[in-house]
Design goal:
mainly alpha; Lysozyme
Length: 222
């Protein structure tokens, strides 16, 4: 590994809280969200051929619904989660103004990141770079939502409903599952995995931006 990549990978620290599960959310109508569409970071991610086994595994990963109610088994888990929520909500307020929006978003990020065995700070840093926490963002390449998921993923491993990518849980479910898939494809190398996620594999600008955003989340939240 060269020194240039080591510099970025040192920033890929693990962060976030302990596991929990949360309530599922209602899907908004696509007709209602069209007026709020905003542009976002434009990636150049190409659709890749998936083996049958990988396609099946990814399809199962995005289709499984989350448990309907929060489960925090101990007083310590509840305390840690509430502290994380308070800190994360405070930092997120610069992007999401309404407390209810922040609460819904953070509950969902917490569950989906932990479900996919991803660092919370990594997922939050990626979302900050990809969409600046804009739920209805669309890039010039057509990527959608918080994590800028390309619509071809809904056809490849989902039910083909592209508009569902504007639903918070669905969007973050796809994004986290895809990011985990990219990390596994790159044997745990976050530099290349982030580049593959964005469609700029091997280039440093995108991983550098995500790692820098992740570091800020680690410093202010954890």
């Amino acid at each position: 590994m060269n020194l240039h990549r080591r510099k970025f990978l040192r920033q890929a620290m693990q962060g976030g809280g302990r596991g929990m599960v949360y309530s599922s959310l209602a899907v908004p109508s696509f007709l209602l969200i069209q007026p709020f569409i905003q542009t976002a970071w434009a990636g150049n991610q190409a659709e890749e051929a998936l083996s049958d086994s990988v396609r099946t595994a990814l399809s199962q990963a995005v289709s499984q619904s989350g448990p309907p109610e929060p489960v925090l088994n101990t007083a310590l888990e509840k305390k840690q989660f509430n502290e994380w929520m308070a800190k994360a909500s405070h930092r997120l307020s610069q992007w999401l103004k309404h407390p209810d929006d922040r609460s819904e978003f953070l509950h969902t990020v917490w569950y989906e990141a932990r479900r996919a065995s991803l660092s919370l700070s990594l997922v939050l840093g990626l979302i900050e770079v990809e969409s600046a926490f804009r739920k209805y963002a669309i890039s010039s390449a057509g990527a959608r939502g918080y994590m800028q998921v390309m619509p071809f993923w809904t056809r490849s491993i989902g039910d083909g409903n592209e508009s569902a990518l504007f639903h918070t849980q669905t969007q973050l479910r796809f994004g986290c599952v895809i990011l985990r898939h990219m990390i596994e494809r790159e044997n745990g190398d976050l530099f290349y995995a982030l580049g593959r996620y964005n469609g700029s594999r091997g280039q440093s600008a995108y991983p550098q931006a995500v790692f820098a955003a992740q570091k800020k989340w680690l410093q202010s939240v954890d």
